[in-house]
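Weekend entry, working from home. Most of the wet-lab plans are on hold until the incubator is repaired, so I used the time to fold the two sequences that have been sitting in the queue since the last round of cloning. Logging both here for the record. First:
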Amino acid sequence: MFRLLLTLILSASSFLTFSQTCSINASSIVCKEEIMSFEVTASTGIQSVIWDMGDATTSTQTSFSHKYSTKGIKLVKVTVSLMGGGTCIDTNTVTVYELPKFKIIKKSDNNYCLWQNNVCLIDSSSGGDTGVSLTKRIIVWDDGNQDMSTSPQLGDKICHKYANSGTYKVTIELTNSK
């Protein structure tokens, strides 16, 4: 007969620990009203979650989309209950910036019938928050042409000549440095 005896000696300072981790997957920078994705992952199975989005809203989904309606620094916190017991907590700071401020002025020497089908605009847009600059401006004219600048400046004059007179829609996209 074979007999195995195992003796485990623990002192008052000895204890066993199991590392259980969770982490937030999300961007740390977003513009106001921009939809961003959040996801939590854990080292073991997730039983339930509760999110505090830093703006008085919560969620109980492991993966979801959210948008912030006010600018500022938001502390996002997720508390995860793990399968088999245990809890882990992770936090993420999200900085919410103002949207770029759109301001286009019709050049004063344009007349309303678009003399010779030429229209000029003056760009007085800004990056939104103080210290935030514009990094790109795309103007799509309704006849299929476009103008793009990767270094737009305050006061830029943008002109376009349409082939025919008519009513046209102009679409302008601004991107700031955040």
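Second, folded right after the first finished:
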Amino acid sequence: MIEEKVFGPLTFKQFICGAIGVGFMFFLEPKLVGITKYVVLFSLGVVTMLGIQRFKPKDISIEDLETELEMKASSMEGEAFLQMLRQKIANVSAQMSIRKSRGLSEDPKLSEVAKVLHKIFDKHQSR
């Protein structure tokens, strides 16, 4: 699923990872001396960047969306999964409404995602 960008180009998880890395650097910087300072700070910077990359949301094609949602359903409790689907449907509907209110043409990808979400929701709601 699409993870919302909360802090500029970063998701919430990426922001937290970066904040922890910068916090460690800020805390350790005055305590280190000489070349050790630069080696440790550089290493922390690399680890922080790798952590941010680790939490990068993966792109899912529309063709794979249904499969991904079914896998998510098997790992979540029924009502929690339905609640997550309701939220995703609301997000997609809001994006479609915003596009329409701005006079933009309908995005076929958004329409397709909405259809898949409704299909999965109806399937799991009837269980």
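Plan for Monday: verify the second prediction. The first strand starts at residue 5 and ends at 7.
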